Amino acid sequence: MVYLVGAGPGDPGLITARGLDCLRCAEVVVYDYLANPVFLDEVPAGAERIYVGKTCGCHHTPQERINRLLVDRARAGKRVVRLKGGDPFIFGRGGEEAQALFEAGIPFEVVPGVTAGFAAAAYAGIPLTHRDHTTSLGLFTGHEKPEKKLSSLDWEKLATGIGTLVFYMGMTNLPVICEQMMRHGRSPQTPVAVIRWATTPRQQVVEGTLESIVDEVARAGLRPPAVIIVGEVVGLRRQLRWFEDRPLLGRRILVTRAAGGAGDFGRLLEQRGAEAVLCPVIAFADPADFAPLDAAIEALAGYDDLVLTSANAVARFFDRLRRLGRDLRALGGVRVVAVGPKTAKALEERGILADLVPADSRAEGVVAELLAAGVAGRRILYPRAELARTVIPDELGKAGASVDAPVLYRTLPDAEGTARLQQALAGGLDAVTFTSSSTVVNLFELADDDQRRQLATLPLFSIGPETSRTLRRLGLPIAGEAKSSTLEGLAEAVTAYFSG
């Protein structure tokens, strides 16, 4: 089976739910230049990934070979996803691939995607149709050899017969497009917008008229890939632009959080317009010995309080509880404490409403709330990270509590961290974020001397006081610290810095 999946124009949030379902079940993924590489993270670890990207002037893989590749992998009994930028059936040659599959007797499904022309217009604040301006719309490919002068198009009808025209892959022929439109009756003052890398943090929009846009594009140094929009509706952009006004637009920000949670923080940054460059530097592993944790779980009925300090701790604790043949009934009568809203949400997803969620999302906040409630004589279970600070057991112990703190998980350097860091620095960065002391230590251990010097020149942001102390111990300046020790607080600190 082959699925021809439209990946959308670049913003990973614009892929369809059906498209994601196909990726998550794929055994082979054949992808191209315009499909956001972040989608490969959705593919099962053992799936084969084949790049067949093509760019103007550099045909990486001939179309005939792509067709044959799809047929061969499907005949081998594989579930194949052909991941294409935009929509497979709009200037994506998906029709040719579907025909090849039909002729080979291979079953296929077409999963539509948001096409680049529609998305570019929306993200630039240009309604392609508007009852006060036009009710007609045309989509065209501008990708022909210059000497052909786009001869396959009927310019006389296009110039005055259609309100809004959208040209895909037309940057090379922009002078020809403008010349032909004016020669065949379109006003030289007709508004034009050229949109590069639409829907991504790198989006650029150059505006002009049929008469001026070629010079404006040259002045801006705009290069492919880009979409060209011609029509009076382009003038509405002054009122309707929204995407480019985001406070972090165009900023590339390194996210060092562990792989399981990096995406959550990345989305917070992307909502503000940034490009989140994921470089997890820590990975979670089981404790060297489960015996202390298992003994505590078997004795859960004897504890008064259970303290969990992260969503990861919640997941690992309840997974171990289940592995030992226990369920939520084991927590009957135990007060459950969550360190912050993210931990409380993770508990709720497991069927538990936290009894206590401190306003201060740090170990100190947990201690303050429990001390205020009184802990003398209480038995407290605190499953922890191997290298966690001892604030909770130390301070509660001093107040008369009996605290057991078995190791729930260990944090280790992420094996892929070095390669990801190298790629991130090669692409240029505007800032680095740290969500724990471990992320600070591991990132600088992974980096070589040159990379450390590069990182030290960038604005560095910390999720809270303890992470900031670790940065200072390494002699590193701190550009900003979250006012609340949460991912939202960290995103706000970055936003405040770049907003001046």
TrEMBL record:
Residues 266-491 form the Tetrapyrrole biosynthesis uroporphyrinogen III synthase domain. Its EC number is 2.1.1.107. Keywords: Cobalamin biosynthesis, Methyltransferase, Porphyrin biosynthesis, S-adenosyl-L-methionine, Transferase. InterPro entries: 4pyrrol_Mease, 4pyrrol_Methylase_sf, 4pyrrol_syn_uPrphyn_synt_sf, 4pyrrol_synth_uPrphyn_synth, 4pyrrole_Mease_sub1, 4pyrrole_Mease_sub2, CobA/CysG_C, Siro_Cobalamin_biosynth. GO terms for biological process: cobalamin biosynthetic process; methylation; siroheme biosynthetic process. Gene3D superfamilies: 3.40.50.10090, Cobalt-precorrin-4 Transmethylase, Domain 1, Methyltransferase, Cobalt-precorrin-4 Transmethylase, Domain 2. GO terms for molecular function: uroporphyrin-III C-methyltransferase activity; uroporphyrinogen-III synthase activity. Residues 1-213 form the Tetrapyrrole methylase domain. Pathway: Cofactor biosynthesis; adenosylcobalamin biosynthesis; precorrin-2 from uroporphyrinogen III: step 1/1; Porphyrin-containing compound metabolism; siroheme biosynthesis; precorrin-2 from uroporphyrinogen III: step 1/1. PANTHER family: S-ADENOSYL-L-METHIONINE-DEPENDENT UROPORPHYRINOGEN III METHYLTRANSFERASE, CHLOROPLASTIC (PTHR45790:SF3), SIROHEME SYNTHASE-RELATED (PTHR45790). Belongs to the precorrin methyltransferase family. This is uroporphyrinogen-III C-methyltransferase. It comes from Geothermobacter ehrlichii. The lineage of its organism: Bacteria, Pseudomonadati, Thermodesulfobacteriota, Desulfuromonadia, Desulfuromonadales.
